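Researcher: For the annotation table, I need C-alpha cells for DMT family transporter. Please keep the output clean. Sequence:
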Amino acid sequence: MLKPIVIMFIAMSMIPAGDLSGKLMTEGMGVHPSFVALSRFVLGALIVAPLAPHGTWALLADWRVWLRACSIAFGVLAIQTALRTEALADVFAAFFVGPIISFALSALFLREPAGWLRSLLMLAGFCGVLLVVRPGVGGSPGLIWALVAGSCYGTFLTTSRWLSHIGSPLQLTATQLVASAVIVAPFSLPHLPAFTWPIAGLSLSSAAFSMGGNLLLLYVYARAESTKMAPLVYFQLIAATGLGWLVFNELPDLYTITGLFVILAAGLTSASLRR
C-alpha cells in the first residue's frame, strides 16, 4: 500500500502545478481558458504519441474512450475558468467534490465495496466542500465552475478505473489527450493568443505537469480499487495551498481553512481504512 500512496502524492502534486501555469496565463496574461485547455491536450499528445505502443489508436473506436475524454476536457475548461478569478486553494477545495463523485459512481456502477464508515467520511468531506463554496451565503460565484470541474474529474477518475483493462496507462493517456484536443478545439480556436515565449513556456509546463500527473494516476488506478485510491487525491490540497501562497501570496479565509482541514482529515482517514 505504501508505494501507491507515494506515487499518488507525486501525481497529485504535479496536477496543481499544471493548473498554476494555466492560472498565470489566464489571470496575468489575458489568455482565454479554452486555449489553456487546448494547448495542454495538444502538447501532451505530442509528447506522448511517439511513445504510444502498437494498437493505441484503435482504442479511439471505443465510445467509452470518448466519454472519458469528454469528462476531462470539460473539467479542464471549467477549472481554468474558475482559476481566472479565484484563488488556487479555494478552487481546489471546491474541486474536491470530485473524489466524492468518484466514490459514489464507483460503488454504484462498478460495484466496488464502499463501507458505511468510508461513506460517512466522504459525507464529511462534502460538508468541507460546502464550507469553502458557501452557496448563497458569501461564496464566490466563480467557485461554481470549480464544482463543475470537480464533478467532471470525479467521472474521469471512475471511468479511468472502468477502462483500465482495455489498454495500458500509456495507451489510455495518449487516447485521452488526442480525443480531448478534438473535443476542445472548436471552443478554443476562436481565442488563440498571439505567440510569446512566456505563453509558450507556460503552455508547455501546464501540459507536462498535467500529463505526468494523470499518467501516474493511471498506473495507480490500474493496480488498486478506486474506492481506496480516490481519497488520496486530497493530496492535491497540500500542493495547491502551498503553490498559491508561494506564487500569488494567496491565503485562504477562515471558512476555507476550516473546510480544507475537514476535507483533508476526512480524505486521509478514509485512505487509512485498508479493509
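Researcher: And a one-line annotation?
Model: The mean pLDDT is 85.
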